[in-house]
Amino acid sequence: MTRSLVRTRLCRGLRVLAAGAAALTWFAFAQAAPVAAQPFPEVSALPSHPELPDPLVMFDGKRVESRQQWLDARRPELKALFQHYMYGFMPPPPAKIEAKVEREVRDYFGGKATLREVTIAFGPPKTPRIHLLLVIPNARKPAPVFLGLNFAGNHAVLNDPDIRLPAVWMRPTGAGVKSNRATDAGRGTQVDAWAVEQSIDRGYAVAVFYHGDVDPDRNDFTDGVHPHYFKPGQTKPGPHDWGTIAAWAWGFHRAVDYLVTDKDIDAKRIAVVGHSRLGKTALLAAAFDERIALAIPLQAGCGGTAPSRGKIGESVAQINKGFPHWFDAEFKNFNNQPDRLPFDQHCLIALVAPRPVLLANAMEDTWANPEGQFEMLKAADPVYRFLGVEGLAADRMPPVGKLIDSRLGYYIRPGKHSMTKGDWKVFLDFADKQWGASK
Q1: What CATH number is associated with residue 92?
Q2: Among 150, 256, 123, 273, which residue's Cα sits nearest to residue 213?
Q3: Which of 17, 151, 199, 221 lies in the 20 to 30 Å Cα band around 330?
């Protein structure tokens, strides 16, 4: 085991300015500025729009005529609309971030990989820290990386007695959880769901952290990052402040801040992956951060990759009732009138263009509306082609078990709502197609 301490400072281009021996620090990195709140109409003043809105038509009805207009006008407008009416506005990137390598093992998986545990600190004092688990193939450096959020803690991802246990709130139903805290009994319980060694063997690094590091998944804004970004005198989010999904996506961005500085990671090949609610998060993170080169939201459903206007599976009203903290308060005004939304989830996919997106599903997971997700890809396809790249290379859903590996990809397998080793093989195959096979 070795300990490494490194200091770096990033200014605009994330230039490394200094190296030392205990921590990693940087300032003001190149990332798109946050979108400011816009004077959009009240929900009651929005027209009913039962059909899917055209992503290439501006809010005022004018058609997008050029790539530059998409980049300078429509894309920022869509980002503002999604934040205003659905996810809430994220704060700007922190001015200062520190990342400390707490543990490093260079002969992991019998010498095939290097494991690092990294603590990422940011924001005002006492803001919760992200504890990133990173495993890198020794045979391929710099390596492309899959970055994901996990439900059960890093200790569940690998069967390793030395991986740090989360110290924050956890769901009582999780493996090994007692009194809402992680215990050693949860170690290695999600090895198959993450299949890290399979990715290492294919030449890909894997980076993960527990979503509760950023915000525990409960309707309580007194913990997590939220209270650290309240305005003076504020005690709860306003109607357009960020919900938990936006906070998790923002956490993805903070992990990317570190990954782009790690010399063993290919900063141009960062993929984000997540399952279910964390799949919703992965897509939102990619839509708002162009440093993310590929997105794989698995079975993300309503509020992620399925249409809000859909008639199958979970509805806007149901998701807001079950998980009122995931979105901003404004989104609840669409519970019984999703047709008033000035966008749908195909527009979120379009915000990732021209980068690749794979939607993966399971036959028995009708709650996530696999058919509706395929329709979202079809509706996002015109934006990809407008930008001069391939979109979705299919007019209908593929047979079960067949991957559509075009830039907009789709896959459906037998089975239920879950993430499996077989899903990861598909993720790796899709990344190989988009980025070139591993070496």
Answers
A1: 3.40.50.1820
A2: 150
A3: 151
In a domain, 241, yes or no: yes
**Distance in angstroms (rounded) separating the CA atoms of residues 245 and 284:** 8
> How much of the chain, in percent, has pLDDT values that exceed 90?
90
| ω into 142 cis (within 30 of 0) | yes
Q: Is residue 12 situated within a structural domain? A: no
The phi and psi torsions of 284 (rounded to 5 degrees) equal: -60, -40
* Count of the separate structural domains present in the chain: 1
* Residues making up the chain, counted from first to last: 439
- Which of 84, 240, 276, 315 is flagged as catalytic? 276
- Is 13 part of a structural domain of the chain? no
Rounded to an integer, what distance in angstroms lies between the CA atom of residue 268 and that of residue 431? Answer: 13
Structure tokens at 200: 């290492």
Show the tokens assigned to 428: 């790796």
In a domain, 361, yes or no: yes
pTM: 0.92
Query: Could you list the residue range(s) of the whole structural domain that residue 176 is in?
Result: 24-435
Residue whose pair of structure tokens reads 């002969």 in the numeric block? 107
Residues 6+ apart with CB under 8 A from 263: 141, 142
Active site residue 276: yes
- Is residue 27 predicted with pLDDT exceeding 70? no
Q: Say which of 4, 49, 228, 417 is annotated catalytic.
A: 417
